[in-house]
């Protein structure tokens, strides 16, 4: 855990810098929970370990709300049929606020920026299509960020893609460099379902 925290500290130094660089495009604010309301949230056992520290510090009422959310999400997942991916609101989200913010996962920390992944097109965050980050320069029909819009708004800094894809951040290359092990990985709800703290 100590080395994972060292990595998080290093990562957050970069992430904060990236959000600051891209500030003309960023609409993230307290109470906006689009990225926590519908997803499958890739997580690892190491990240869940940190969530558990946050969970242990909450009052009993809040813990009970989270446990109920987890149970309901597990039930909904069992009922889910068809080929579509099961998505859900994060069980830690209460009144549009993360109840374990300081202890959140990697995906929670990087969402909202454009990311790049080797061999793939840069990825614009989905909230751009919902009037949030980068929507001020997005042309939805062309599915592109437009330089003309940027110029019209007098924005000088270009939209930039960062190497912050979850697959990279949660890779062995990263964990080995910092000397920790992520453990098992999977959708958050599956990891919670197999952890006795939440069952
Ligand atoms: S842990 Fe917090 S930040 Fe991450 S998805 Fe859940 S509510 Fe959102």
Give an account of the 3D structure.
A hairpin with a 2-residue loop joins strand 2 (93-94) and strand 3 (97-98). The protein has a domain at 2-112 and 170-177 and 184-198. The strands form four sheets. The chain has a two-stranded antiparallel sheet. A two-stranded antiparallel ribbon has the order 2-3. A two-stranded parallel ribbon has the order 4-7. The chain has helices spanning 2-21, 34-37, 45-56, 60-79, 106-110, 147-152, 166-169, 172-178, 188-193; strands spanning 42-44, 93-94, 97-98, 114-115, 138-139, 144-145, 161-162, 185-187. It is built from nine helices and eight strands. 42% of the residues lie in helices and 9% in strands. It starts with a helix and ends in a 6-residue tail after the last helix. With 199 residues, it is mainly alpha-helical.
| Count of β-strands | 8
- What is the helical fraction, as a range of percent? 40-55%
Instruction: State the secondary-structure class.
Output: mainly alpha
State the order of secondary-structure elements, H for helix, E for strand.
HHEHHEEHEEEHEHHEH
- Spans of 5+ residues with little confidence (pLDDT < 50)? none
């Amino acid at each position: 855990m100590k080395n994972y925290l060292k990595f998080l500290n290093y990562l957050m130094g970069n992430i904060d810098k990236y959000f600051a660089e891209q500030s003309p495009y960023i609409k993230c604010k307290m109470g906006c929970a689009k990225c926590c309301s519908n997803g499958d949230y890739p997580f690892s056992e190491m990240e869940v370990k940190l969530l558990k520290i946050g969970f242990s510090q909450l009052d009993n009422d809040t813990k009970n709300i989270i446990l109920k959310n987890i149970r309901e999400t597990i039930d909904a997942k069992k009922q889910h049929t068809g080929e579509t991916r099961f998505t859900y609101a994060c069980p830690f989200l209460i009144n549009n606020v993360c109840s374990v913010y300081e202890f959140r996962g990697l995906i929670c920390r990087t969402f909202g920026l454009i990311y790049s992944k080797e061999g793939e097109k840069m990825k614009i965050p989905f909230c751009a299509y919902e009037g949030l980050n980068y929507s001020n320069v997005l042309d939805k029909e062309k599915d592109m960020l437009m330089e003309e819009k940027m110029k019209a708004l007098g924005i000088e800094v270009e939209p930039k893609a960062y190497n912050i894809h979850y697959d990279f951040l949660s890779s062995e290359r990263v964990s080995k460099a910092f000397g920790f092990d992520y453990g098992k990985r999977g959708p958050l709800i599956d990891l919670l379902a197999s952890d006795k703290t939440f069952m």
